[in-house]
Amino acid sequence: MVKGWNNYPAVQGKVFRPERIGDLVALIGSNEKSILARGGGTSYGDSSINNGGINVDTRRLNKMLHFDSEQGVLYCQCGVTLQDISRVFIPQGWFLQVTPGTQFATVGGCVATDAHGKNWKAGSFCSFVKGLSLMLQDGSIVCCDDKNNPDIFYSTFGGMGMTGIILDVRIQLRKISSSLIDVETIQCRDLKECFAVQSESMESHEYMFCWLDSHKEGVNMGRGVLQRANHCSNGPPIYKEKRKIHVPFYLPNFTVNTYSVEAFNAAYHASVGKKNRKKAYMMDFFYPLDCIANWYRVYGKRGFLEYQMVVPSDGAYETVFEILKVVTKSKLGSTVAAVKPLLNARGVMSFPMDGFTFAVDFMPDQRLWHLLDTLDEIVIANGGKVYLAKDARVSSKNFRKMYSETLDRWEPVRQKYNPENRFSSMMFNRLYKG
Ligand SMILES: Cc1cc2nc3c(=O)[nH]c(=O)nc-3n(C[C@H](O)[C@H](O)[C@H](O)COP(=O)(O)OP(=O)(O)OC[C@H]3O[C@@H](n4cnc5c(N)ncnc54)[C@H](O)[C@@H]3O)c2cc1C
Asked: Which residue ranges make up each domain of the chain?
């Protein structure tokens, strides 16, 4: 089966695993009409699925090609994972400037989604991409950066694989002198306090993330646990391979239910106390969910959905409040819900804008589709959009409302480089033809 991380949707599909660029040239030269590159498959939804053609799993194109140890610029193939980068470069005192919450994502996937992370101040992954090369639909290779072919360069950031297959990328890493992070955890009684502590922490802390209780209604709606953090300066930077807990099989669909979610949320909120401070190993801080392999299996075979949106800073609190009211009332949210600030990104189709992003996981349920349409309406009315890397269901009509301005700039470039829609995905078909 070909699927995203959340196991929804999961479809039968053909997978091709190239070992070298020549294998891709041969694929492009064949009469396969529809091709889609995928990386770690850690996005949720249908963006990394091509149900009508070939899914190119790029993880064997994983060579580190060059590292400039003076400037910290890494030149690597698209299938290098963030874990590969940590394993090699943390001991040398370098780390990623921006990382999503899983180290199993690939560099190609992080560019195609323009992933964001806990260090909102730095921007998004592509803020540190200095250049890249892509294979186009006729097998030719185009190299691009902000001076050469800037149209395809910026349209590939957040372009979800629709401009071509990203082959290699030059990324700026950052210096670190320790693999420890100084983390402060603060309990917040409601959404207002979550926003207030985030605002107060913006100057003093590089990293920020606030978990929210997706069930609590009434005066404590939006109670949360905020983490704010900075790198420690005392070394040494070391990389430790951690043992993982495995979820060996799919649990019954009912395992994640209203009662188990409410029990977890209450226990987690209480467990942190008012405030605490500790030094954490950086991989545990950045990738807390990676220590449980296949954790999505706790949702059962039907998988789960995540709704992630961003809205402009002005009025963000009110919009998140309105959304949370709908979510808490429904009792369909799961244990994963969060809010954090974002900064505008460079890519034409990039998700981040100056504002706040809110994400919540849902257990699949008949009532969910209507609920999510309601959330779309609130997001559109407030100038926001959903994150395509977490989407499996937004309608073509709503997508065009959310991305209207950017589509006017992106679509001519996509058509120039992918005129026959040779690069295509289930998401693309849904959003364009649906
Ligand atoms: C636990 C967890 C936490 C996460 N936290 C975050 C987070 O904080 N922020 C965030 O932004 N995301 C987050 N994500 C989502 C996901 O990790 C990111 O979107 C990531 O960038 C996807 O990378 P990938 O290699 O898995 O790409 P895939 O999921 O395989 O593909 C994603 C998209 O990229 C395209 N693509 C992949 N490789 C190429 C290539 N070589 N050329 C062209 N197109 C390509 C695919 O076609 C698809 O459209 C999280 C996911 C998990 C499981």
From this structure: 2-57, 61-176, 180-401
Model pLDDT, residue 154: 98
Indicate if ligand 1 lies below 6 Å from the C-beta of 105. yes
CATH topology of domain 180-401: Alpha-Beta Plaits (3.30.70)
Tens-place pLDDT, residues 54-105 = 999 999 999 999 999 999 999 999 999 999 999 999 999 999 999 999 999 9
- Region of 154 on the Ramachandran plot (φ > 0 left; ψ -120 to 50 alpha; else beta): alpha
Atom of ligand 1 at shortest range from CA of 111: 21
Q: Record the tokens describing residue 109, joined without a space.
A: 């996937």
Assigned token pair, 163: 């401009």
Q: Is the CB of 42 under 6 A from ligand 1?
A: yes
The answer to pTM > 0.90 is yes
pLDDT given for residue 434 in this prediction = 63
**Atom 28 of ligand 1: nearest residue by CA position:** 41
For residue 187, CA distances in Å to 130, 256, 277 come to 39, 24, 12
CATH topology for 61-176? Answer: 3.30.465
Instruction: Give the β-pairing of 165-172 and 73-77.
Output: antiparallel
Alpha helices in 30-76 (DSSP H): none
Look at residues 192, 189, 185 and name the one whose alpha carbon lies nearest to residue 288. Answer: 185
**What distance in Å separates the CA atoms of residue 372 and residue 327, rounded to the nearest whole number?**
9
Nearest to 308 by CA among 3, 7, 44, 8: 44
Q: Report how far Cα 56 is from the mean position of its chain's Cα atoms.
A: 20
Residues 6+ apart with CB under 8 A from 152: 134, 142, 144, 163, 164, 413, 417
Q: Which atom of ligand 1 is nearest to the CA of 43?
A: 29
**For ligand 1, mutation pick of 34, 38, 98 (most atoms within 8 Å of CB):** 38
Which residue, judged by its Cα, is nearest atom 51 of ligand 1?
42
**Atom 48, ligand 1: residue with shortest CA distance:** 48
Q: Are 130 and 73 in contact (CB under 8 A)?
A: yes
Interatomic CA distance for residues 243 and 256, integer angstroms: 25
Residues of the chain with pLDDT under 50: none
